[in-house]
Amino acid sequence: MSYTVARIWHFYVEGFRGMTIGRTLWLLILVKLFIMFFILRLFFFPDFLNEMAPQGDKDGYVSRELLDRAAR
Known about the structure:
Elements: H1 2-17, H2 21-44, H3 48-52, H4 58-71
């Protein structure tokens, strides 16, 4: 089992060492993911649950909302 894992690890390490344009593409992908998940989240997706749940009662707020919406 560990021999197979070591071979797979070696395969990927050698593949990344041999890349030329691939490193630039991976850097571009990582920068894009950083922008999507950290920068956009800070500015466009507020923490709605912390604002709406009184005194940190998040589970109570969620269960009330689910029951209210199911009753409609």
